[in-house]
């Protein structure tokens, strides 16, 4: 089966395959994003970039959990100006890089986008869903009217496609997504981490310096799948599934639930070169099922599934 069978279009961005590196897992160095593309990812999302440099929280910022991990890195990043200088190295290459952006209000989001927009990259992902940094993330992303302001102000400052990364920590998932789509979002990424609070038994204290963190990895996958399934019942825009993908079966679950592509985060900590394995598995699944193009099975779980066997 030819590799063209798994080419996808997400919100106007053409990807050679449906796998993407998720935002932030490997820090803010652009080299990690480029490495993901080199080892088979169809696209890659940068660390979330804010208007000013940020150091992030003190250690510990990461603890293991059953079937995943809890992190509270505190959005460390070099700030938009320095990051725009880093982007010079990809000028003229037309790579499927998506820049993740965060901010405290619509003005700050717009400022970051204006600073970055001349760069050669494919689109933006707005991080409106970080569960452990106050003043940004879920403090905006759980409020439909604030989400609408942010998306409108970003869209007014760029021609590039804009994705909104949603939070699983609210019962207003669909309401928030509607605000984003009605305000011009080209796609939805579902989802960011689940708000968590790990405790260290030995010290009797919170295990993370910040206390609260975000749960990622296999443990969140059923929740993320539910979010994708719910969103794809209500919206026609592209949906990118994210949360606990570590093999081709996980990826296919998201596609059947309605995602056009999937992001892989935590699993790349164990094996960065995971993207090809996932693509090979998807292709042989398609062959077994007699599926000629991946698009044919996007959302199939809503329509009676696929041919067994
Ligand atoms: C260490 C770490 C850092 C992260 N940093 C970001 C970030 O900067 N921006 C963002 O939108 N998501 C961030 N995330 C969330 C991931 O992009 C992803 O949404 C989440 O981990 C679920 O996917 P996974 O289970 O495949 O890791 C981070 C996750 C981890 C584990």
Structure description:
By secondary structure, the protein is α/β, with parallel strands linked by helices. It has a single domain (3-302), classed as Aldolase class I (TIM Barrel, Alpha-Beta Barrel). Helices cover 31% and strands 19% of the residues. It has 10 helices and 16 strands. It has an 8-stranded parallel β-barrel with strand order 3-4-7-8-9-10-15-16, surrounded by 7 helices. A 4-stranded antiparallel beta sheet has the order 5-6-14-11, with no helix packed on it. A two-stranded antiparallel ribbon has the order 1-2. The longest helix is centred in the C-terminal third of the chain and has 15 residues, at 275-289. The chain is globular and about 50 Å long. The chain starts with 7 loop residues before the first strand and ends in a 20-residue tail after the last helix. The mean pLDDT is 96. The site of flavin mononucleotide has 26 residues, from loops. Flavin mononucleotide binds at residues 22-25, 47-48, 62, 71, 73, 75, 100, 127, 165, 192-193, 216-217, 220, 242-245, 264-267.
Q: Could you write a compact summary of the structure shown?
A:
The chain is α/β, with parallel strands linked by helices and 309 residues long. It has helices at residues 30-38, 80-86, 106-116, 138-141, 144-155, 173-182, 221-234, 248-257, 267-270, 275-289; strands spanning 8-10, 13-15, 19-21, 43-45, 62-65, 68-71, 97-101, 123-127, 162-166, 187-190, 194-196, 199-200, 205-206, 213-216, 238-242, 261-264. An eight-stranded parallel β-barrel has the order 3-4-7-8-9-10-15-16, surrounded by seven helices. A four-stranded antiparallel beta sheet has the order 5-6-14-11, with no helix packed on it.
């Amino acid at each position: 089966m030819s590799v063209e069978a798994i080419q996808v279009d997400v919100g106007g961005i053409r990807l050679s395959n449906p796998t993407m590196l998720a935002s932030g897992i490997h820090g803010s160095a652009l080299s990690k994003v480029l490495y993901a593309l080199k080892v088979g990812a169809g696209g890659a999302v940068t660390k979330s970039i804010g208007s000013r440099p940020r150091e992030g929280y003190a250690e510990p910022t990461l603890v293991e959990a059953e079937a995943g991990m809890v992190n509270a890195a505190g959005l460390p990043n070099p700030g938009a100006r320095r990051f725009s200088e880093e982007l010079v190295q990809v000028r003229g290459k037309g790579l499927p890089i998506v820049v993740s952006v965060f901010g405290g209000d619509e003005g700050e989001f717009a400022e970051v986008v204006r600073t970055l927009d001349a760069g050669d990259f494919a689109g933006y992902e707005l991080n409106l869903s970080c569960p452990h940094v106050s003043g940004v993330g879920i403090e905006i992303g759980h409020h439909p009217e604030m989400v609408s302001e942010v998306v409108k102000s970003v869209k007014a400052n760029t021609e590039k496609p804009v994705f909104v990364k949603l939070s699983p920590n609210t019962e207003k998932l669909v309401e928030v997504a509607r605000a984003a789509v009605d305000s011009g979002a080209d796609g939805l990424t579902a989802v960011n981490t689940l708000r968590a609070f790990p405790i260290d038994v030995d010290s009797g204290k919170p295990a993370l310096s910040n206390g609260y963190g975000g749960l990622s990895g296999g443990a969140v996958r059923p929740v993320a799948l539910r979010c994708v399934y719910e969103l794809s019942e209500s919206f026609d825009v592209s949906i990118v599934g994210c949360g606990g993908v570590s093999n081709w079966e996980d990826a296919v679950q998201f596609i059947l639930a309605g995602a056009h592509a999937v992001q892989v985060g935590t699993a790349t900590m164990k094996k960065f070169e995971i993207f090809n394995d996932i693509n090979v598995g998807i292709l042989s699944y398609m062959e077994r099922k007699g599926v000629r193009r991946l698009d044919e099975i996007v959302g199939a779980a809503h329509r009676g599934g696929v041919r067994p066997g």
